[in-house]
Write a structure and sequence with these properties.
5-stranded mixed sheet; 7 strands
Length: 264
């Protein structure tokens, strides 16, 4: 009787397939790593270009401000101006202030990104900065017939910070609340101690912010897509600048959206 003997299965075919797949996976991983490196380089270049753009834009916008201020000043000094001149002067001054605010914001953003913004740090009463910002905001809220209230503590709350930059932070937050709060609405400011920290809460009766947009509210040029928000959209710089300045002070800023209004 003829006998047959089968050769043992060494598994070489299966091992070869596995090796081929591993090599292919390794090539895919290498391609992904190279693509990621190229994408990172492109992103870094884009950020660098963006920083230079902010610096150049701020410089170019600042150049015509001086002659515009001279024109506004000349209008104010006219001995016997026509009836419409005071109204035109008021409009020009308001728009000029907005432009100055925008240019300063762009300049600050560029300097923060380049690590060139230096803070003049001292121990200061935080309520002094809040009161200064409230004084600057009062005409804006009165023009919209809004109720602006504040509750300050009796105790002296001291923080280590740059007074002028703190005023800038609080004014940006308050002017943002004024912008998004309807006429006859309400804005409130409360200051209190929370452990070793000072907490400042700004609340308004505006329409609120879409929950999906909350994680991006402090991003540069972020704008809520809601129609009512879009109609009052600003430069998209203010809140991003607020976060950067607050973090430079070692603090944090957050927003809580509710169906009617928001709280910072």
């Amino acid at each position: 009787m003829e006998r047959f003997s089968a050769a043992p299965d060494t598994g070489l075919v299966g091992e070869s397939v596995l090796i081929v797949r591993l090599r292919e996976a390794n090539r895919n991983l290498l391609r992904a790593a190279l693509n990621a490196r190229d994408s990172l380089a492109v992103a870094e270049s884009a950020l660098s270009n963006q920083d230079r753009f902010f610096s150049v834009l701020a410089h170019e916008l600042r150049s015509p401000l001086a002659p515009i201020k001279l024109v506004a000043s000349a209008l104010e000094r006219l001995p016997d101006p026509p009836e419409e001149v005071p109204r035109l002067h008021q409009t020009l001054t308001r728009q000029l202030d907005s432009l100055v605010h925008l240019v300063n914001g762009l300049d600050d953003v560029a300097r923060i990104k380049n690590g060139k913004l230096a803070l003049d740090m001292h121990v200061v009463p935080v309520t002094d900065a809040i009161l200064a910002a409230l004084e600057m905001t009062q005409p804006l809220s009165e023009a919209r017939q809004q109720q602006l209230t504040f509750r300050l503590p009796e105790e002296l709350l001291l923080v280590r910070g740059d007074h002028e930059r703190l005023v800038q932070v609080f004014f940006n937050l308050l002017s943002n609340a004024v912008k998004f709060t309807p006429s006859h609405g309400a804005i409130s400011v409360a200051v209190h101690r929370r452990g070793d920290s000072v907490c400042i809460e700004i609340q308004d009766s505006g329409p609120g912010i879409a929950p999906a947009f909350l994680p991006f509210i402090f991003d540069m040029f972020a704008q809520d897509g809601a129609p009512q928000a879009h109609s009052r959209a600003g430069s998209g710089i203010g809140l991003s600048l607020v976060r950067s300045l607050v973090e430079l002070h070692g603090g944090t800023v957050a927003i809580g959206g509710v169906p009617a209004g928001g709280r910072l």
